[in-house]
Design brief:
CATH architecture of the largest domain: 3-Layer(aba) Sandwich
Mean pLDDT: 74
Helix content: 25-40%
Strand content: 5-15%
Bound molecules: 2-acetamido-2-deoxy-beta-D-glucopyranose
CATH class of the largest domain: Alpha Beta
Number of helices: 18
Shape: globular
Oligomer: single chain
Number of strands: 20
Largest sheet: 9 strands, mixed
Structural class: alpha+beta
């Protein structure tokens, strides 16, 4: 695969479910109901065997998990808080001289003069933070273009070299990099780092004491879970400390279900912490963030309506009930935060393995019970059982190695950097059962990050390629960057 696994898997798109049978759900979930509030919150924490994590208690599960893209709502909240600081004169930095007001409509060009630039003049001039966080900049996911050692500033600087798929505000297109950019704006104007700002202004007042944006602190707490593939192979945590600052806005929050209860209670109370009456998310931002700004899914189904995207939140109706939600997925991480604002309850589901479809089914089945509706979720335990086999399989008949020889060379692109496909490994393919040639990039390669060429093999199989007939790599690379929907810009050197 031509992108680092860790960042590719951050892409978290809404999953529309095909819910069919009416088999009752048997998941390890436990409801809690607050006496003070008319809602309940369920928190199944899906655990595989030999999990390292804190023991479950009567009160709940203290195990800390990464939230992946469920962190995005924390960024829109942080930006809203920062905007309110400026409106209240409590700002710690000054805006550029020509910027009178810091709002969701303030142009990026004004907020980041000399830094914000895209290939398209109109987008450079007109894009606002609202456009960035509602995924309507026209940029597709360019998660393969950055290294885990890049800084948010590097991402902004290289934006001008990346291709857009659409014009500004033409269509919804999910882009993590805009959430990295949003976090950069917070760090630039809050007088502190994004991670510290969020911890101080959201986690602290909401008493989310087990939550953090610092992976090292999460590890030190002894409560942080290990991560697993669906087939129960343990894998390293996808966001080590050195990359946490880069990915903080897109997927950097670590929390547990106990802390997330306070986050959801606040959300169900329109941004105000019901325990202290303190406003956490300013009302204007809360209303905007949880409203449909762009259309993410244009068609509904028997169970779900069309889906609008706000600022780190998706808004839809599930079986006629209002749902403001987001899911998150990364290697070894699957999360769901589903507040049902009109019904007064929310579902938080954190799992230490990937599997958005399964977790979505569990969350919806819990909602069915809360809403008193017959469950529509199909049997989930079969998919979560010990024989889960969700990982891609290596083809039985691998592609002859000589086909791959055509891929060797160095590729360069200003936005993506250079990478080299090394040829010396290819002749060994047939002689090393169980080993695969490695795809090495020059930007990442010296940092000891390597990716399997397996996806390329599968791609070749899918395309029916049986001889080294293709003279150029372009077809292949367009396939992997298909969301860009434009002609290839890759150059190959021999
Ligand atoms: C707050 O922002 C205003 C307007 O940008 C600026 O004049 C003022 O100096 C800032 N306050 C502080 C404490 O920097
Ligand atoms: C919060 O505000 C409500 C309504 O104004 C009030 O009834 C309640 O006592 C307040 N709670 C606290 C903890 O201040
Ligand atoms: C990438 O390759 C181009 C063309 O060979 C070269 O000019 C450039 O310096 C390379 N960039 C990096 C970062 O190595």
């Amino acid at each position: 695969m031509l992108v680092p696994r860790s960042t590719l898997a951050l892409l978290t798109l809404p999953v529309t479910l095909a819910l069919a049978s009416q088999v009752p759900l048997r998941a390890s979930c436990k409801p809690t109901t607050s006496r003070d509030y008319p809602w309940a919150l369920f928190y199944p924490a899906v655990k595989w065997n030999s999990l390292h994590g804190a023991p479950r208690t009567e009160q709940g599960d203290p195990t800390v998990m990464n939230l992946a893209s469920c962190s995005k709502a924390f960024l829109s909240a942080s930006l809203g808080i920062l905007m309110q600081d400026f409106a209240d004169g409590e700002n710690k930095t000054a805006l550029p001289r020509n910027v009178e007001k810091f709002s969701w409509d303030t142009k990026m060009r004004d907020l980041l003069p000399d830094e914000w630039m895209t290939e398209d003049h109109w987008t450079t001039e007109k894009a606002s933070l609202k456009d960035l966080l509602s995924h309507v900049t026209g940029f597709p996911a360019h998660d393969g273009s950055y290294s885990t050692y890049d800084s948010p500033q590097d991402i902004v600087a290289r934006m001008r070299h990346l291709r857009a798929a659409y014009e500004l505000r033409q269509l919804w297109e999910y882009t993590n990099q805009m959430y990295i950019t949003g976090a950069y704006v917070v760090s630039k104007y809050s007088g502190s780092s994004y991670r510290d700002f969020l911890e101080e202004r959201i986690l602290l007042p909401l008493r989310m004491s087990s939550s953090t944006l610092y992976p090292d602190r999460a590890f030190e707490s002894g409560k942080f879970t290990q991560s697993w593939t669906p087939s129960r192979r343990r894998i390293p945590f996808w966001m080590p400390e050195h990359t946490a600052d880069l990915l903080a806005g897109a997927g950097g929050v670590m929390s547990n279900v106990e802390d997330m209860v306070n986050w959801v209670k606040m959300l169900l109370n329109s941004g105000v912490d019901p325990q202290t009456n303190k406003t956490i998310i300013p009302r204007t931002t809360f209303d905007l963030a949880t409203s449909a700004i762009s259309v993410a899914v244009h068609k509904g189904s028997a169970l779900t309506s069309i889906m609008g995207y706000g600022l780190g939140w998706i808004r839809l109706a599930y079986r006629g009930h209002e749902l403001v939600q987001h899911s998150g997925g990364a290697p070894g991480v699957a999360t769901i935060v589903d507040p049902y604002p009109s019904d007064g309850f929310g579902v938080v589901l954190l799992a230490n393995t990937v599997g958005p479809l399964v977790t979505q089914k569990i969350a919806r089945a819990i909602a069915d019970r809360m809403l008193g509706l017959p469950t529509e979720a199909p049997r989930v335990e079969t998919e979560m059982g010990p024989h889960a086999q969700l990982e891609p399989r290596i083809p039985v008949n691998p592609i002859p190695p000589n086909i791959l020889a055509g891929f060797t060379g160095t590729y360069s692109n200003l936005g993506y950097g250079n990478f080299t496909l090394c040829s010396p490994l290819f002749p060994n393919l047939g002689r090393l059962p169980g080993r695969h040639p490695r795809l090495q990039t020059s930007r990442f390669g010296d940092r000891k990050a390597h990716w399997s060429l397996g996806p390329l093999q599968r791609l070749a199989a899918v395309l029916g390629i049986t001889s080294p007939a293709f003279s150029s790599i372009r077809t292949c690379l367009i396939f992997w960057t298909k969301s860009i929907r434009r002609s290839s810009w890759w150059r190959m050197e021999r």
